[in-house]
Structures are given as structure tokens and as C-alpha cells.
Amino acid sequence: MEGTAASPGIAIGSAFLLFGESGQAIGANLGADDHDIELNRFYQALNEALDDIEMLQKKVQEKIGKKEAHIFSFQKDIIAEEEFSEKVTHFIKEEGLSAEKAVQRVIRQYAAELANSEDTYIKVDENDIKDIGERLINLLQGQDIKLDISQNNIIIVARELSPSQIARLDPKKVLGLVTAEGSSTSHSAILANSMGLPAVVGIGEENLARISQGDTLIVDGKEGQVYLNPPRDMISDYRKKQSLMLWHNQELNKYRDKKLIRADGSRLYVSGNIGNSSEALTVKQNGGEGIGLFRTEFLYLGREKAPDEEEQLQAFAKALEHFPEDPVIIRTMDIGGDKEIPGLNLPAEENPFLGYRAIRVCLDNRDYFKVQLRAILRAAARGEVKLMYPMISSLEEVRSANTILREARGELDAAGKEYGELDVGIMIEIPAAIAMARELSREVDFFSLGTNDLIQYAVAVDRSNERIKDLHTPFHPGVLRMITRTVMAAKEAGIKVYMCGEAAGEKLLLPFWLGLGIDQLSMSPGRILEAKSILSEWLNRDTREVIEEVLAKSTTAEIQYYLSRLFHDNSRSPVKSKQGN
Ligand code: PEP
Ligand code: MG
Q1: Surrounding residues of ion ligand 2, Cβ less than 5 A
Q2: pLDDT value of position 190
């Protein structure tokens, strides 16, 4: 089965089917052994939902009014009724459905009954019942994925996995991931990369339906292939490939401590992207020279309460321990988009990537934001920390964020808490910021190119949409020109310029980044050693020619073809690629 290579490596194990968005089942239903697990999950989610609703009801009553809060008592009454639980139990026990699917069935029944009802008063509440169903299903999907001990060596198979679901997986038991939807730059894929889990995404609905619970799978996360119940000799071939990869990685180890110094004496740092502090060690082990992107929002995922100042400080301090000499760039939380966060109760949006996201949320919730800023400032007393704001689109945003940062410093002064000085930079991932690069460069110490979003916004292509994934490419001439402009603006202003989107580790573009004079490339830990080995080869070659030729090419396919020839890489032939334009 062909999909998109989302996280490299080979995994061989048995399929463990999870359930997709809105509780629709994927593949086979559950066996009798799983009934109790599913019933427990249902009751746990039910209790959580009842608590949540009560809390919401109180909030609405205080802030808006009693009448408006009434809707919640209606929702609460429905799911608290014995009849509701009995029906869900019936579907789990008698029909072998998962908790999500059983809830969905009952909710559909209720909604249909209400829709057919003559009573206009009750009809209004059809959406409320769907709403409560969604709430229950979300709670179920957010639950820890509990796998009993006998279920080691499993490969999670799902329609889609949210970043918070992946964050909760136990890497000792889970060997790999396969999803029907998704793309290589979605946050789920990024997380799988940083956890070192081989993943293939976007295999499609039809393929997904072919996989049953317990089937043997080979996941080739480098080639984007999944093999269903493969013959024995194929399994042994893949085991050999696994060992070969291990050997290759050991070979690359010689680049671990290599520093990349250009002919002009400038240094190119190759560092790692992480989502939690324990990944800092993986970056170190893979030869990473510091952290170029600490995605702090991952600290918030998969939990009910946001981490407080102390907890965040500890996480940052732990990452710093591994890098006494190299910088750790901490990005303030980039929430929203495809990442949900506890404590703020952000409503669902029609266009989350263009919506209430990242710095926009933080500027609107100063106190929430300041907790994190204080933790970052305090971490700066323990090592070389740099602070970075995501999704900056205007000067005002940088200035407002810096005002809040000053307030956070003032609060630490007042509390007598120690903190350190730090460089402050912004992510360049919105085209308007590139048009304003000269002005923005006067406000900050560095830029960091976030190519995942930059491509999404520049080419108008949803980074997680499987159908248009070929359009999400850093080889687009427009994207390369935007990146070049950003670097030039930074150089002119005398500030540093980094790149931390997935394109930073794109093999064919490494000489381009090297020649442009980018100061740091930050990528998933698993890509660092190979990038260092390629960059080492290019260090003494004339990269000017590459840059000029690439920029002169007028189509994506031409650029890719040219670069693939330089690398003798036939797999990138434009004939095979759909990326020509
Ligand atoms: C990016 O957009 O390229 C980036 C590094 O940030 P994220 O992937 O977390 O949005
Ligand atoms: Mg981004």
C-alpha cells in the first residue's frame, strides 16, 4: 500500500486499529475480549463529560445568564440517564462496537428522534445532542491509548491521529504508525519524527479498510510503503534492511562532532527540533548542535491542565542540560491550527490555520502567555536560551509581545526571581512578514524560517491535506525566492537567520541553504547526521553556482531535476514527479 513517507525507519509488527475522527470505525470491529476495556473507556469519558458540562454551566450562568446555561442541563440530563448508558452498553456488548462508534450510534438515534419530533421546542435541541456526542467522542479519542502487556510490537493504524494522541503513545510498545489521511508536514508527522516512530501517512480509505486487527505489517517510513501480511521472505528482507540502516547510521556517526565552517569562516549550525525535553538527548546523540526549535505547545498537549511556570521551567532546564555550549531556541506556544490546548476552551473554527492561532491567542490571553514567558526568562539564567514568537504577521504583534515580555521581566523582578538575558526572534512563516522583513529585522535579533507554514500560506496549500500534498513543496520557485529575500534582509540588517521547517533537512536543498549563508538549520533529530554528512561534502564546493541556477529555473520540476542531477538521485526525476508546474 502506497502512502506518504512521514517519518523514516522500518517497523515490523501487528496492526492495532484505532478509530478515526467523529468516531467512524476503521476496519474490523472489536473482539469480545475488548468489551470491558471499551465499557471502562465509555464510563470514564461519561464522567469527564458530566464534570465538564457542569463547569461550563456554572461559567455560562455567571457570565451570561441562567437562561443560556439551561442548554447544559438538557445535555447533562440526556447522558446522565440510565437509558443512554444502557444503549451504549448494548452496542458495545452485543454488536462489538468500539466506545466511540457505540456513542455515535446512540447519538444518531436520539438526533433522528428529535428531528422527527413534532414538538418545535424540542427540535431546537437536535444540535445540542450532536454537540454532546462530539464532546464524548473527543474525550474518548483523547484518552490514553491503553495497551495491555501482551500487545507489544504494535503498529497503530488509524484514519487520522491527532498530535495529542501521538504524544500519549508508549514508544516501548508502539513501533510505527499508519494513517489513511495526513501529510508529511502535519504536526502529527512531525511528532512521530521526533519520537523516532516510523510512519506512513495518507494510504487512503480503501487501503485502511483492508487492514484488520492483528494483521502483520511492514511500515517502510522512508519509502512511504506499507506491506499487509507480507510473506516470510519479505519480512526477513526487511529485517536485513533494518540492520543495514542501523549500520548506515553508525557510519554517519563520524559526523556527530563535526563542526561545519564555511570558507569565509562563518559557521553553519545543524540543530534539532523537539517537542519535549527528553528529545533533547536524542538530538545530542544524533550530533545536533543545540535546539533550533522547541515546540513548547507540545508540553500542553494530551493533558487537562496547562503546565505551570515551574513545570515549564523544569522542562526547559532539562533540555539545556544537554547543551551547555549551544543555544536552545524556545518558541512560545503555537497553539490552534491542528493543535488543541487545555484550559482555553477554544471553539472549533472553519479555517483553523487562518484563524485564532499562535501569537494571536497569546496576545489575547496575556496572563496565560506570561506564565510561559516567565518560565523562559528564568530558564535563560541557566544556559543560552533564545526566545522566538511564532506566526508573526506584523510589526504590532512583535511590539505587543515584547511589551508583555517586559511585563514578565518586571514581575520576576518584583518576586525576586532570577532570570537571564536572551535574544528575541520571530518565525518567518507568513508571506506578509517577508514583505516587511526589513522593518521587522529592526525589532528582533534573529529570523527563523518556518517553511511548513510558509509554503502553506505562500502557495495556498493546506499542509495537512493529503490530496494536494505534492503542491506543498519547498522546490517551488516562488518559495525559494521568498526564502532568499528573507535571508538577504537579515544579512543587510546584520541579524542571524535560521530555518526550522522540514525543508531545512531536505537533502537536495542543503547546498542551497549552505550557500545562502543561513546560520542554522534545525530539523527532526533523525535527519541531522545525514544532513551533516551531505553538508560536509559541499562545504568546499562553489555553492554560488547552485543558487544562481536554482533561482533562474522557472518551474518546480526543473529545479528538482537540476538538483537531483547534482546529487545523482534518480528517484527525483521530474518524469515521475507530479510537481511540475
Ligand atoms: C513551520 O511552520 O515550518 C514550523 C517550523 O512550525 P510548525 O511546523 O510547528 O508550525
Ligand atoms: Mg509553523
Answers
A1: 429, 450, 453
A2: 81
